[in-house]
Amino acid sequence: MSYIQSIYHIVFRTYRSEPTINEEHERELYAIIMKQSETLRAKLIRIGGMPDHIHLLISLPSDLAPAKYVQAVKSFTSKWLRESPSFPNWSGWGKEYAAISYSVHDKEMIVNYIKNQKEHHKKVGFAEEYRECLLDNGIAIKEEYFLKD
Fold it and tell me: pLDDT tens, 87-133?
């Protein structure tokens, strides 16, 4: 028996950071992401976001790489969003994403961070938040690709 614990804080944004996630219906999108996560055998711990991006705290099974998880979720939800009348301005997801691994000891800190997204973004824009998140976790930013679609 192998024992695996992999927790990721995943962040991805809408195409060109357009505010196309209708806040009145965001819970519908979150439910679809939860359903897709269950299909992938991933445990969605927390989800939240803004009209232009989403944060997930997720525990992935040992045989599912973060890239495959993000690809599956983006693909599945993009199709659903295009067909949903609740998201009439949907134009797609941005190309890049961040997947940062955390210890189970950091779980509550990240859960609270995701819970407080609406309040946090009254003071800080997405680009600044994303840049800070990457740099704080030792991820080098290639400026020629940063937030470009």
Answer: 999 999 999 999 999 999 999 999 999 999 989 899 999 999 999 99
- Which string of DSSP letters, residue by residue, matches 101-142? EE-GGGHHHHHHHHHTHHHHTTTS-HHHHHHHHHHHTTPPP-
**Domain ranges across the chain:** 7-136
Radius of gyration of the chain (CA): 15
Contact 49, 126 (CB under 8 A): no
Whether this prediction's pTM lies above 0.85 is answered by: yes
Contacts of 97 (CB under 8 A, 6+ apart): 10, 11, 12, 70, 74
Which has the closest alpha carbon to 147: 22, 18, 9, 8?
18
Sign of torsion, CA 90 133 10 58? negative
Q: Which is nearest to 121 in space by CA: 3, 21, 2?
A: 21
Output the pLDDT for position 8: 97
Fold of 7-136: Alpha-Beta Plaits (3.30.70)
